[in-house]
Amino acid sequence: AQRLIRHYGVRPGDSAVVLAAHDDGYRTALDLLDASVSVVELVDPRPAGATSPLEAELRGKGVAIRKGVTVEAAEGTAGNRHLARVRSGGSWIACDLLTVSIGSAPAWQLPCQAGGKVGYDAATHMMTITLPQGPVHLAGAVAEEDAIASGRRAAAAALSRLGHAVTEELPVANPKSARPRYVQPILADPKGRDFVDFDEDLQVKDLQNATKDGYREIELVKRFTTVGMGPSQGRHSALATARIVAEATGRTVGEIGITTARPPVGPETLGVLAGHHETLERRTALHARHLALNAAMKPVGAWWRPYYYGDASSADEAVREEILAVREGVGLLDVSTLGKLEIRGPDAGEFLDRLYTMAHASQPVGRVRYCLMLNEMGSVVDDGVAYRMAQDQFYVTATTGAVARVYADMLFWNAEWRLKVDVLNLTGAFSGLNVTGPKARQVLETLESDIDFSRDAFPYLSGREGTVAGVPVRVMRIGFTGELSYELHCPSSLAPSLWDAVMAAGKPHGLRPYGLEASRILRLEKGHILIGQDTDAITTPDELGFGWAVSKKKPFFVGKRSIEMRARLGQTRKLVGLQFPAGASNIPGESCLVLRNGAPVGQITSVGYSPSLERHIALAYVHVDDQAEGSRVTVKCRNGELVEAPVVDHAFFDPTNARQEM
Question: I want to staple 111 with a disulfide (CB 3.0 to 4.6 A). Which of 116, 219, 330, 486 is the partner?
Answer without folding.
Answer: 116
